[in-house]
Amino acid sequence: MFFRGDIKLVSLIVWDVCCDMSPEKLFEKYRLSLENDLGLASHTKSAYLRDIAPWVAHLQENLGGFSKAEPVILRTYLGQRRRDGISARSLARFLSSLRHFQSFLKDVSAPSRFIFSITRLKFSEKLPEGLTVAEARELVSRQSPTALMQTVPQNNFLALRDYLLALILYVTGLRRQEVASLKLRDIERGREIAEVKGKGSKVRFVPLTEAVKGVMGEYIVARRQFIDSKDLRAKDEGWLLVNNRGGGLSTRSIDRIILQLGRVRLGRRVTPHMLRHSFATHLLDAGADLMAIKELLGHSSLATTQKYTKVSSARLKEAYEKAHPRA
């Protein structure tokens, strides 16, 4: 004899089996849906899957005894991940990924017991690390007196490419993936504006300074000569920054090049993201409008850009405490 609660639980189990709605099967369908989503960048899709995979395993192990989405299931998972050493920032990112996953679950009419109420997780905001103006100038200087490599050789194509890469990252504030995705056709005739495809396939137009335009013209000529000398014209897909085989630079290669350049020129660790932070902070320090910086960075929300005001204020306070006699 079944009681009402038993019948409800049995019906849920039968629904899962008949309709192939186990957490693992739903996750596989989610993965396939991401593959077909042209509006998301590949690294965003990978991040979603990385974040959600442990959660699906947790559901698979712990959801069997529950007939609905009990908050304790999510709380237990978050607590365990925190004890495993996962930072609050990473858990906040997981919750953002979980919202995306649960939106998919609702679209495919998944059982409601897989869909949890999500609250925002608070975490302390770490101020982004960047370069000083002097360090940035040293890094992108054509002639750097303290560098082991005194100049960028005029006849060395790969050295010229690396120099242009660093210059683009600092002068435009582009993300490394955005730089890796640039093609020759994205640079307007006259090389004054770059067309950039950012997060969510949003397109924006970024101005190029005189310094970038000059090096860009030199590089494009050298690029053509390099492709011809290596007999790579048949393999040339039009990427702006190319590797030794004529293919586009990967984000990993961009990381490696900037890391090496930072060690040689500054004697310290430098990343592409640090150059993006430096771009925004130096503009703000010079009095640039926050909304203009938001557009240049490709942020969808002004709140994301406002973190640079904290960096600028922190620098102002530090300068005050060093210089003011009554500080």
Please trace the helix and strand order, writing H or E for each element: HHHHHHHHEEHHHHHH
- CATH architectural category of the largest domain: Orthogonal Bundle
The total strand number stands at 2
Number of helices: 14
What's the domain count? Answer: 2
Identify the strand order in the major beta sheet. Answer: 1-2
CATH class of the largest domain: Mainly Alpha
Q: Round the Cα radius of gyration to an integer and report it.
A: 25 Å
- Tell me roughly what share of residues is in helical segments: 55-70%
User: Class by helix and strand content?
Assistant: mainly alpha
CATH homologous superfamily placement of the largest domain: Intergrase catalytic core
Distance between the termini: 80 Å
Instruction: Name the average pLDDT.
Output: 80
Write a brief structural summary.
Helix content is 57%, strand content 3%.
Question: Keywords, please?
Answer:
14 helices; 327 residues; 3% strand; single chain; hpI Integrase, Chain A; two-stranded antiparallel ribbon; mainly alpha; elongated
Provide structural commentary.
The protein has about 325 residues and is mainly α. It has 2 domains: about 5-115, no CATH class; about 135-325, Intergrase catalytic core (hpI Integrase, Chain A, Orthogonal Bundle), CATH 1.10.443. It has helices at about 5-20, 25-35, 40-60, 70-85, 90-105, 135-140, 155-170, 175-180, 210-230, 250-265, 270-285, 290-295, 300-305, 305-325, and strands at about 195, 205. It has a two-stranded antiparallel ribbon with strand order 1-2. Helix 3 crosses helix 5 (about 90-105) and helix 7 (about 155-170) crosses helix 11 (about 270-285). The longest helix is centred in the N-terminal third of the chain and has 21 residues, at about 40-60. It is elongated. Mean pLDDT is about 80; it is low at about 1-20 and about 145-150.
